[in-house]
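Page 47, continued from p. 46.
Same chain as before, 156 aa.
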Amino acid sequence: MDIVANPENVIEICKIALDAMKAAKSDYINTVYSMIASLIVAIGWVLTSAEARKFINEHKLVWKALLFGSAFMWLFHIVNLTGIADRAINAATYVNNACSGLSESVFAVYQVLWWWPWASIAFNSVLFSGFILMVYIIGNAKESRVNASKAGEQCN
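Result:
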């Protein structure tokens, strides 16, 4: 007996598939915004804390760990985000095929469009590369530049 042949089964399958779409979109949005927030906090910490800059400059192992850890997180973020987006797109494809009577507006609410992960990766890559570049510059800076408590002191 075919599971889809029974209309009650089709409705149940569509509910499950729509729930999978909702969960995938939620995972996608949470991943994107939590990474943006984390990167902004990290950039702000490096830009505003003279003690942090001095510590990074004086402890080369910490400096290297920040550089390599950030690069690893960047790569992990790309792999994770594309995986979540693939799951969301696959769920949407299944819902679109199995639940032909579903309203387009309901479908659109839970859909992750194909270009979203690439736009998110591009935006977050700017933040990641900015953070990595700042950490790299701090690690290579002369001590007098690192110890400055205000960024404007160097502009005289």
